[in-house]
Design goal:
Layout: H1 10-15, H2 17-21, H3 24-37, E1 41-43, E2 46-47, H4 78-96, E3 99-101, E4 103-105, E5 108-109, H5 122-135, E6 140-144, E7 150-151, E8 154-155, H6 156-167, E9 175-177, E10 183-184, H7 185-196, E11 201-205, H8 220-226, H9 234-261
Parallel strand pairs: 1-3, 2-4, 4-9, 5-8, 6-11
Antiparallel strand pairs: 7-10
Helix pairs in contact: 3-4, 5-7, 5-9, 7-9
């Protein structure tokens, strides 16, 4: 199972395109090693960033089905790396008989994920910003873009469930593993504010990286092939994510305060 990649949220993807592209080496070496070792089944973690940009220009986006990756116009850098990786898997299957599985992940989030440092994705970033706004007393949150861009976000438990269901299936073509619950970024903030029990001033950073205008997962194929689709609501997943990030931020603050009292 190759789930390794040098990547992050949109802020990282748009400013580290070369770093994201170098990840083709991971999949190249893994495929060659799998072939040479006689591996029977190989899973490559792909991404919704492979989908053609001209199908994601509207906030009221039509959910993306697997065929929408072509004609190719993926996210620059990271999306091209993933689409190329998918093609490599296909040709290793055709030429060497390596049975491949290719999930296209849609914005995976949850506890234990990156929440600061520049690689975090929107759900974790929003949770962190809401918590920090309360801790520092600013009661304000910076939102990248106008907040009207739309996305779907997939909880980590659903993602893991989907990985194993796919791995144990006979599905060899790329397939979406993503939630179909579409929200605007403003609605994402609404949910996190509701969890926190606060209402913050919103400051929009219109020149920040935003990615495509709208993206959602069409789950027709996964329901047909696996009889399953991600089902954890964003409200449920964000509640668990918020609680974990809150613990990380507040326990760190307590540790720093204790060290200050000790004169360290």
């Amino acid at each position: 199972m190759n789930l390794a990649c040098d990547m992050g949220g949109m802020g990282f993807i748009e400013t580290h395109k070369a770093d994201c592209m170098v990840s083709v080496l991971i999949n190249t070496h893994m495929l060659v090693a799998a072939r040479d070792a006689g591996v029977e089944r190989y899973l490559f973690g792909s991404s919704a960033c492979v989908y053609a940009a001209d199908k994601q220009t509207d906030t009221d986006v039509t959910a993306l089905k697997e065929a929408d990756a072509y004609p190719a116009m993926p996210e620059d850098g990271y999306g091209w790396e993933k689409l190329f990786g998918e093609r490599m898997c296909r040709h290793f299957m055709e030429d060497y008989g390596l049975s491949v599985r290719v999930p296209r992940f849609h914005n995976v989030y949850g506890p234990h994920g990156t929440y600061d440092g520049g690689r975090e994705k929107a759900p974790a970033a929003i949770c962190r910003k809401v918590i920090q706004a309360q801790l520092d007393g600013t009661n304000a949150i910076e939102i990248w873009g106008d907040g009207k861009q739309t996305r779907s976000f997939t909880y980590i438990d659903d993602t893991i469930d989907g990985i194993f269901r796919l791995l144990e299936s006979d599905v060899t073509e790329p397939i979406n593993i993503g939630s179909s619950q579409l929200v605007t970024i403003n609605e994402l903030v609404d949910i996190v504010e509701g969890i926190a029990g606060v209402k913050l001033e919103r400051r929009y950073k219109l020149d920040a990286p935003q990615g495509v205008r709208g993206r959602n997962s069409d789950n027709t194929l996964i329901r047909e092939k696996l009889g399953w689709e991600p089902s954890t609501t964003l409200e449920t997943g964000l509640a668990a994510t918020y609680a974990w990030i809150h613990e990380q931020l507040t326990s760190g603050a307590r540790d720093e305060a204790a060290l200050a009292v000790q004169g360290v």
